[in-house]
Design a protein that fits this description.
This protein has about 260 residues and is α+β, with helices and mostly antiparallel strands. The chain has 2 domains: about 130 residues, 2-Layer Sandwich (Fructose-1,6-Bisphosphatase, Chain A, domain 1), CATH 3.30.540.10; about 110 residues, 3-Layer(aba) Sandwich (D-Maltodextrin-Binding Protein, domain 2), CATH 3.40.190. Helices cover about 30% and strands about 30% of the residues. A hairpin with a 5-residue loop joins strand 1 and strand 2. It has an 8-stranded mixed sheet, sandwiched between helices.
């Protein structure tokens, strides 16, 4: 039996219960990099998700943030981010999520992202649409950059790399109503899908960061590409641009004129 949207939503919500139970408590924090954190809750959430996927679909391949790639059939791949927004979570900032996507024969077919503190479950099925708690969602119809609210994120090597997104951040800040940095790439994509933000971009990501959110944004009606406007954003180096249909070409124009385009 193939995975269903109901199943993937239930997995995201189950992991979300683990995040909720641990939120606001003292955590065991490890550093994967200077500003790249992992907590015991990341591991607990991922163990739950991998256990449920393996129990139902033992032959499927899994790509998870903390445990890496698990062997399996290349035709059936799961992308698992057990806690997107770990730095926020570790500091008690209430912006984080669980992100889960299922890819079949090279195309992401199902995606779910759950924000447990707001009880918001964003989900999508290819060819059928995108929803927030079962209600269809769509991007905004804002047509001008100066009337847009954008969102972005920064790479973990921001302190050492010149390609740190600060130039783009400053540029778009002067062109728009503002640029937010929420700290969860998965939720950033969902907020574009739901019309809360007009556009989102980020570089130096991983597949588990954007597989579910990219599908949700696409199926809601947003345009999702890399920064050059190429639809193959789910390939290395995993740079993504998602925006409503009016704002997307305006943002691509900005990136095409940049000397530091990724």
């Amino acid at each position: 039996m193939e995975p269903t949207l109901l199943f993937i939503e239930s997995l995201a919500k189950g992991a979300g219960e683990i995040l909720s139970a641990g939120y606001g408590k003292r955590h065991q924090i490890e550093h994967k990099g200077a500003i790249d954190l992992v907590t015991e809750i990341d591991h607990q959430s991922e163990a739950f998700l991998l256990g449920e996927i393996r129990r139902r679909y033992p032959s499927h391949r899994v790509v998870a943030e903390e445990s890496g790639a698990q062997p399996g059939q290349d035709c059936c791949v799961w992308y698992v981010d057990p806690l997107d927004g770990t730095v926020n979570y570790a500091h008690g900032v209430p912006v984080f999520s669980v992100s889960l996507a299922y890819q079949e024969n090279g195309a992401v077919r199902l995606g779910a992202i759950y924000d447990p503190l707001r009880d918001e479950c964003f989900s999508a099925e290819r060819g059928k649409g995108a929803w927030l708690n079962g209600v269809p969602i769509h991007p905004s119809e804002t047509r001008e950059l100066e009337k847009s609210l954008l969102v972005t994120g920064f790479p973990y090597d921001i302190q050492s790399s010149l390609e740190n997104n600060l130039e783009y951040y400053a540029h778009f800040t002067l062109l728009t109503q503002g640029v937010r940095r929420l700290g969860s790439a998965a939720l950033d994509l969902c907020y574009v899908a739901a019309g809360r933000m007009e556009g989102y971009w980020e570089t130096k990501l991983n597949a588990w960061d954007i597989a579910a959110g990219g599908l949700i944004a696409e199926q809601a009606g947003a345009v999702v590409t890399n920064l050059r406007g190429d639809a193959r954003y789910l390939t290395p180096p995993y740079a993504v641009l998602a925006a409503n249909r009016h704002i997307h070409p305006l943002m691509v124009d900005v990136f095409q004129g940049s000397r530091t385009l990724c």
